[in-house]
Amino acid sequence: IDPMVTLYHWDLPLMLQEKYGGWKNESIIDIFNDYATFCFQTFGDRVKYWITIHNPYLVAWHGYGTGIHAPGERGKITTVYSVGHNLIKAHAKVWHNYKKRFQPYQKGMLSIVLGSHWIEPNKSEDALDISKCQQSMERVLGWFAKPIHGDGDYPEELKNEFSFLPRFTEDEKNYIKGTADFFAFSFGPNNFKPPNTLPKMGQNLSLNLREVLNWIKLTYNSPRILIAENGWFTDSHVKTDDTTAIYMMKNFINKVLQAIKYDNIDVFGYTAWSLLDGFEWQHAYNIRRGLFYVDFKSKKKERIPKSSALYYKQIIQENGFFPRESTASLQAQFSCDFSWGITESVLKAESVASSPQFCDSSLYLWNITGDGLLHKVKGVKLKTRPAQCTDFVSIKKQLDLLEKMKVTHYRFALDWSLILPNGDLSVVNRQVLRYYRCVISEVLKLNVQSMVTLYYPTHAYLGLPGPLLQAGGWLNQSTAYAFQDYAALCFQELGDLVKLWITINEPNRLSDVYNRSSNDTYRAAHNLLIAHAMAWKIYDEQYRSFQYGKVSLSLHSDWAEPANPYFESHSKAANRFLQFEIGWFADPIFKTGDYPATMRDYISFKNRKGLSYSSLPSFTSEEKQLVKGAADFYALNHFTTRFVIHEPQNGSQYEFDRDIQFLQDITCLSSPTRLAVVPWGVRKVLRWIKKTYGDIDIYITANGIDDQSLDNDELRNYYLGKYVQEVLKAYYIDKVKIKGYYAFKLTEEKSKPRFGFFT
């Protein structure tokens, strides 16, 4: 381990403050140089990296201006700049001293650590905003960097703004210019706090370390850079579980790596701040910045590694970041009967009016009174051809798109409220049924099979017939019986053409709608499960023997990863998320006929503590028998991987019962709606399904991402390639019985995220 030694990190001997007034007095320059000489003589044979002063901006601005830092003086602005002047001259003197007397035989390097914020314009195209950002950087970083790393003088902007700014003579400029062997840079919370003391100029503070490194490269002629201080802080109550600090560190170091790889910035080292929790200046012990936790109240003051220490150690061992794909990419094929599909949400059946069927046998006169209208001629009937499927305008469009995609399967949803507007069989909209039958039969002519979803609710459109909605929707058990009748009608009318049925799409996401209380959520879910099982049973008993189809329900099945892999509580939280999200519906059907034991146990544990009054409904023995085994395959919609934290919550809500929070990993590639692109997550969830529910057939019924691009959708291309590759590994290496993959989705909807393959 190489020592990097800082001569002055704000620990001025009290005597020098009392006798001379500290850095306000020029006499300190020579005294500091004497101290430096002593250190070079004593330690220089072992030290190859010297820092003269740590972050002189903070010493001058907060030590002698705002009074936040030692020596706590609230001086005039003139004092602040004369302190800065003395700090620069002291540094330069020490550099020349080392260069002349010690470097020739000690062979070390010497610099000064300069700290800064980063700032971005409100409007990236606005020249005035950009110029304000430039001024902001020059007032903080440029104040010290331009004399030392530039031309030996202060930024023009500072000189024009402050007439009282101390001046350097020409000799001093030449003496100061170039007095650093590398650019030592500090980027941490002290450079951003308190924000009201920063020259923001009405622009936006930013933590983008890559951008500020680019600014240094462009402004100071591509220097060699050492990150001499970087990190963030946690609140004092956080002990060793400093998950946020891990993700801040990951982001910062990743930005440094991007700057090296993509911007050719010469960064030769990185220093995490800091080793131990300690006294944090004006924050005292209210924040923590250490990699090791210290309990200040204990006698022994033990040092305990936080998760950030373990994570930093891992980064050092790997010397960077590795993709988490479990194996290298695989060259192999799926079986010949594998289905390649595309998914569409609810197909809105066209009315006869919007799509003329050309089967009206009446004769009309047009525009006889100049009114532009058709007038029927009474008593005349013409011979016409029967209605044809292609008369529906939208069917032609769909066929065209499907032909372009070369898929083998097309998944779409029917609209229950259109087919049975009263919610029962008293009124059946035959025209709508005819439309759907037309879609299926025309698609078959292209050798494309349909996977038909009976019920596809969303946040915006619950999709229930009006009378059922008014009667309480899924909170009312009679809705399950109404669904059974609706399903039977669809099997009867369309089943001869359909081999794959989905009863309900993502019932495990209806918690977003029935969220008044957890008991509402659990009651609605219970009725949805019963509805699905009754529909499956009707198919099994009355239609399977001659239609030969298969029936299941599609579950939203995102993977969950512990946000902090070093804490068991996070691993347990990730497993709990899977049980509450997937097991909630999958366990009753594919396993036990009952809700997951994990779910029941956790809710009763919270009941006992008085943190929740939730209760899961019980299945009667008849219901258990009905539900268990009521699916012919497992269908999953998978989009992303969630990073999960254990976060105790109280209150009787489904969301609170789980005691979890999600964390957004900002280093992760993600979409405009912040879906993280984590390809290996799909393989993990497929393996988990096989391990939990046995060797069952699996269809991925939706997988896709939103991409803003109107034509060159690079993100979607990348996403599909990587996710299908992981599905192939699950199929080929892990022997998961995947029968089909359906990309999401065929077309875009107005004013919604862009998931479509076609605009």
Automatic annotation (TrEMBL):
SUPFAM superfamilies attached to this UniProt entry: (Trans)glycosidases (SSF51445)
Protein name: Beta-klotho
Xref: InterPro entries: GH, Glyco_hydro_1
Alphabetized GO MF terms: hydrolase activity, hydrolyzing O-glycosyl compounds
Species annotation: Pterocles gutturalis
Pfam families: Glyco_hydro_1 (PF00232)
Membrane-spanning residues: none
GO biological process: one example: carbohydrate metabolic process
